[in-house]
Amino acid sequence: MDKVQAFGKTFTASFSPFATRTQQYVKEQFGQAEDKTELPPSYIELEKKVDALKLAHQKMLQVTSQYSNEAYDYPPNIRESFNDLGRTITEKVHLLSSATSSGDAQTALTAPPSAKPQPKTFNHAIARAALASSHAIQQNPDSKGEDALAKALEGFALAEEKVGEARLYQDEQIQNRFLAGWTTTLNVNLGAANRARKSVENSRLLLDAAKARAKAPGWNLPGQASNRKAEDIDEPGLSEEARIEIEQAEDEFVAQTEEAEDKMKNVLDTPEPLRNLASLLMAQMEYHKKAYEILNELAPAVESLQVDQEVPAQS
């Protein structure tokens, strides 16, 4: 029996603040609350800045989270088989070079996977298409022009695979150095600030509820008049119990407000978001630089094949 009574007291103590806050909130919604404790202007300004920072994180993460999806640039209209994704372009080129017949060459292109399936990126898809095209042309080796095109396509396939690998490395860097940081800021830092703001709102509701009880005990339905005026709260007739309750609620409200301000200032002052953004920028720069270097190395070879093909045609 004692345990049941103890549980009842604990439940009542924990439920009472919630009920009080809810009642005060409903009164405010019905327009019954005469006064609503105002928050400091500096606090309101911090709230606006935090809300803007939260929105910025949500919008950026909504788009950049695609870096966690390997196939974000993979064309939806491509139909590649399991065997098409079996081996790397480098492995296929090696197998093709040792093929002694058209059957061996076809087997090289559709060889079963040596490890996990190859990546589904746009560059890897281009590489696989270029190598397959090169092989198709080589099935009819009578034309020198076709041989040159086949050779250029093979080189292009190898280069595109390297570009695709560079893109995957970029994505990994962005996931680790940008997405992880901004997700943490949104869920942890901004989350803590928002919880602190909620505590401020709860303490304000409790404070205003205590003031309302001191002015007019009981809860009035919409349209009913209160029997005490707002200024009566400072009259000597206010009970000591009511005065203590209001003072305690005010102290709690001030403490929660100061704590929330500190948390909001911390999340606004942290350099992590900007540092993470710089990492995103650097990862993109490194990828595009690497892609340029790979393609720039291939360009002279393709141009040379083009010139060699055009010279006999002009003579």
Task: Note down, in words, how this protein is organized.
The protein contains eight helices and no strands. The protein is about 75% helix and about 0% strand. It starts with a helix and ends with a helix. Residues about 5-15 and about 220-235 have low confidence and may be disordered. It has helices at about 1-30, 40-65, 90-95, 100-110, 120-140, 145-215, 240-270, 270-315. Helix 1 crosses helix 6. It has about 325 residues and is mainly alpha-helical.
Describe the secondary-structure layout.
Layout: H1 2-29, H2 41-64, H3 89-97, H4 102-109, H5 122-138, H6 144-215, H7 240-269, H8 272-314
Mean pLDDT: 80
Helix-residue proportion: over 70%
Q: How many β strands by DSSP?
A: 0
Which shape, going by the Cα principal axes?
Answer: rod-shaped
Keywords:
8 helices; 315 residues; mainly alpha; rod-shaped
Summarize the structure.
The chain is built from eight helices and no strands. It is mainly alpha-helical.
